[in-house]
Amino acid sequence: MIGNYILIGIILLAIFQIMLEVMNIFIMRKRRTRIKIKSDFWIWGIFYFNPDDPRIFVPKEVEWLGWTLNFAQPISIIITGGILVSIIISLFYKFSK
Fold it and tell me: What's the domain count of the chain?
């Protein structure tokens, strides 16, 4: 049972990584310049909040750490809320058995 959840998680992470790579390819083809990320837009050093930046996914301040969400975009709040709700539901489901 747990193996199925791990497999689904791995598949979802792979799909997410492919989506990021495809988005990067489109950005490079259109030769759009990347918006310079200023430290002023980082809240507590971990939350990126820039209403002038239209991107949903932005690279972290230290590029090799990966990507994060632009919390100034409403879809980012929805994504984060969906993840938290799914975790809470799965925990309730696991402990109810």
Answer: 2
